[in-house]
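RECORD TYPE: inverse folding
INPUT: structure tokens
STRUCTURE:
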């Protein structure tokens, strides 16, 4: 159990370091944030694979994973062993971090100021898909405002129409 507890602390700590890099994304040099974020995602992924597939020796003697993905009861049975719970936690840490990275990079691509992202990033850190949903809603309305401000009325010029098409393609 000591190994599992130490792994939990290590995984959580490095994930929070990476989240700090995401929150402060524009303030970090490009190379530093790339190294930190890539390293943390790779480490979390490796830890997940190890604890899921290769660390069965850390389970209490005589225990084995029982359960399945076909019912809620079956999934609950999967999470009765501390090693499997740790693997599940690391899975959450890794995927939420990748979602946060997607939000930051996508917003940068479409021109959304980083400060607007902070609430969505916080919600992604704490509640995963809720933060992603908030970002998608925010992104939709920001792109709609941009398209509307470029002039979608009948008197819009050909240049305005080209800008609208460009914004639409960026949305996809």
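DESIGNED SEQUENCE:
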């Amino acid at each position: 159990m000591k190994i599992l507890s130490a792994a939990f602390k290590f995984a959580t700590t490095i994930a929070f370091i990476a989240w700090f890099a995401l929150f402060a994304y524009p303030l970090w040099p490009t190379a530093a944030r790339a190294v930190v974020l890539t390293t943390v995602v790779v480490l979390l992924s490796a830890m997940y694979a190890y604890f899921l597939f290769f660390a069965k020796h850390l389970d209490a003697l005589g225990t084995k994973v029982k359960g399945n993905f076909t019912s809620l009861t079956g999934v609950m049975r999967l999470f009765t062993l501390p090693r499997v719970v740790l693997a599940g936690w690391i899975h959450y840490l890794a995927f939420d971090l990748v979602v946060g990275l997607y939000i930051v990079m996508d917003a940068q691509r479409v021109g959304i100021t980083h400060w607007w992202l902070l609430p969505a990033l916080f919600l992604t850190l704490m509640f995963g898909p809720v933060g992603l949903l908030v970002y998608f809603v925010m992104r939709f309305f920001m792109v709609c405002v941009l398209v509307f401000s470029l002039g979608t009325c009948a008197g819009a010029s050909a240049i305005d129409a080209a800008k609208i098409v460009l914004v639409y393609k960026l949305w996809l």
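NOTES: Helices lie at 2-23, 30-54, 72-78, 82-110, 114-127, 129-149, 158-171.
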